[in-house]
């Protein structure tokens, strides 16, 4: 019997500007580590999977545990995108989504 191993790579870039951002980052990172992912470098994690069923369930779990999205808009027309919590986004492009 032959096994076909797969690797699941997780790349993410979460903001750490506010206390809530840092808390969301820590929770997501702890979830990855408790799920068996190994850190290759900062914000890059890997896990070995035995088959496609394991991959599908792991991807679903990651999607369920990712931090909530925040919508950024240019409400005052000055060209700076502001998120709902008042933090300026790094990208001035309108419609930029923080957290994915």
Pattern of helices and strands? EHEEHEEE
Widest beta sheet: strand line-up: 1-3-2
Largest sheet: 3 strands, antiparallel
Q: pLDDT below 50 for ≥5 consecutive residues: which ranges? A: 91-100
Strand % is 15-25%
Tertiary shape: elongated
Quantity of strands, as a count: 6
Mean pLDDT, to the nearest integer, reads 79
Q: Pairing-aware structural class of the strands and helices?
A: alpha+beta
- From the N-terminal CA to the C-terminal CA, the straight-line distance is 40 Å
Description:
It contains two helices and six strands. The protein is of the alpha+beta class and 100 residues long. The chain folds into two domains: 1-67, Alpha-Beta Plaits (2-Layer Sandwich), CATH 3.30.70; 70-100, no CATH class. The strands form two sheets. It has a three-stranded antiparallel beta sheet. The protein has a three-stranded antiparallel beta sheet with strand order 5-4-6, with no helix packed on it. The longest helix is centred in the first third of the chain and has 16 residues, at 19-34. The chain is elongated, with a radius of gyration of 17 Å.
